[in-house]
Amino acid sequence: MKYIFLSQKLDIFNYLSYHCRQVYPDIITMKSKYISTQSNVLLSYFNGQNETCFDYREAVKAMPDSKESTLRELLSDMTKRGLLMRLKDGVYCIIPYEANAENFMPDWHLLAEHLVNNAQYYIGYYSALQIHSLITQPSLKEQIVVSKQMRPSVIKIKNVSFQFIYHNENHFFGAKKIWIDHFNKVECSDLEKTIIDCLFKPDYAGGIVEIARAIYISKDKIKFDTLLEYTKMFKSQAVIKRLGFLLELLEINNKITEKLQKEITASYVLLDTELPKSGKLISRWSIQQNLETETIKSAIYT
Predict the structure, then answer these.
(1) Distance CA 104, CA 74 (A)
(2) C-alpha–C-alpha distance, residues 62 and 74, integer Å
């Protein structure tokens, strides 16, 4: 296999300059590192596309004259040499030149779109709370809501788990592009839909205490008319009851509380699905309060 020195190729220098800035924005250094001619072609192609992740089909477009066996061998070789990181079968991420391949991990939020097999998706639940700056405890899990069932439902990349949570078409709405830094946007549930989703499955969001804190912190940002509209669209008694109960508990006075009250049925739901079926019954909201009021409030006000 023919090798070339990086400093002799302008297109590879552009590749290095771009990717070095992702890790060391103030320092661009050149190491004595060799890349094959074919690797050069592949990396230069995706650098020109401003893409840091790609799948096998895109690699074929980058090198249309290569045989399948040759291309797969190249991708495998580049992965072994620390130029590429394999995300899953047939999906790769370009490792910045200055990064240590063993320790390198891209921003988890940016990987979501490359892992969903072309399904509709958005980042949701606890991961969305993080994007909205509403959590106190970081998590080594990225939660991705998808429009179709995915198997396996959890994959692991390095030490980070990626969980795919299926929502049917009635529950799949309320997503938008949200900035996560100065350069990148990701598809994420908006604030109101994040609250609805978390109330639907509290165990995916760190529990009711975490959700209550998020609602309280963001009470001045929440569009309550949108929140009510989403609640009706979602058609979940558990969401209606938990939301109404928490709004009153947190003394967030809003006209939607009484509107929610008119929607509830007589059957009881647990406040926190992670805790045992115990506690007093709150008839006003048909809630079995299996978490003490003081426990919720103290976590918020202290």
Answers:
(1) 20
(2) 13
pLDDT tens, residue order, the chain (302 aa): 433 333 334 454 444 444 444 443 333 333 334 688 999 999 999 999 999 999 999 999 999 999 999 999 999 999 999 999 999 999 999 999 889 999 999 999 999 999 999 899 999 999 999 999 999 788 899 999 999 999 999 999 999 999 999 999 999 999 999 999 999 999 999 999 999 999 999 999 999 999 999 999 999 999 999 999 999 999 999 999 999 999 999 999 999 999 999 999 999 999 999 999 999 999 999 999 999 999 999 988 76
Cα–Cα distance for residue pair 246/207, rounded to 1 Å: 13
Residue 34 covered by a domain: yes
Domain stops at, among 60, 94, 128: 94
- Domain span at residue 33 reads 3-94
Q: Say whether both 90 and 111 belong to one domain.
A: no
Domain count, the chain: 3
101 in a domain, yes or no? no
Sequence-distant (≥ 6) Cβ neighbours of residue 117 within 8 angstroms:
150
Distance CA 106, CA 84 (A): 12
Asked if 72 and 124 sit in the same domain, the reply is no
Q: Cα separation of 228 and 208, whole Å?
A: 19
The span from the CA of 188 to the CA of 104, in Å, is 24
CATH number of 58's domain: 1.10.10
In a domain, 288, yes or no: yes
Query: Which of residues 172, 189, 206 is at a domain's end?
Result: 189
In whole angstroms, give the CA distance from residue 177 to residue 118: 17
